[in-house]
Amino acid sequence: MPKGSPELTNARREEIINACEKLYQTMSFKEITIKKIGGATSFTRTSIYNYFQTKEEIFLALIEREYNLWCDDLENTMQEIESMTKDEFAGALARSLERRPQLLKLLSMNHYDMEENSSLERLTDMKVAYKRSINTVRKFVKKYFPRLTDEKLHEFIYLFFPFMFGIYPYAVVTDKQQRAMKEAGMNYPEMTVYDITYGCVKRLLASIE
Description:
By secondary structure, the protein is mostly helical. The chain has helices at residues 6-24, 34-39, 55-80, 86-98, 101-107, 111-116, 120-144, 150-164, 167-171, 175-183, 193-208. Helix 3 (55-80) runs parallel beside helix 7 and helix 8 packs antiparallel against helix 11.
């Protein structure tokens, strides 16, 4: 670990994660390197290795942060709203993901290679945040549908989370992909993150109640 106060260490880690996030808005995962991330920070590139050993670890830290921000959002909703109808619940959950496009984009990546090229410690940090997200969504469902059995609640969770990994590719289509689908004669309906999530949640609730 680098020398210095915990505050400095956390600030440096956040700066690295922020630099990675900014690059990811205009570059692909493959294009991003430790060197490029270092170039977007206020300290030397080699200093990054005091905090992260690979770029995959930085991406895992970004996923960890996105999961936690999503959880914070859902918890705030639970504090502010006491009850919801099915339609309101589906809308609230859809809006929470609509506000987290970065999370959905990260979830659409190849996690097998990313996790394999990260230390156990960094991977565990991300999995802790992932566990929190599962527990938070479970609480979110249970609050507004308290009569659901544990079995039905489990069914909702483990249908909804795999579904999340596929939202981004359907909601965000590149110009090249659009041209290719047109050439292939595909009629591709344009749908937003909200539309896709809302429809899925409504169907999930109908199937488990």
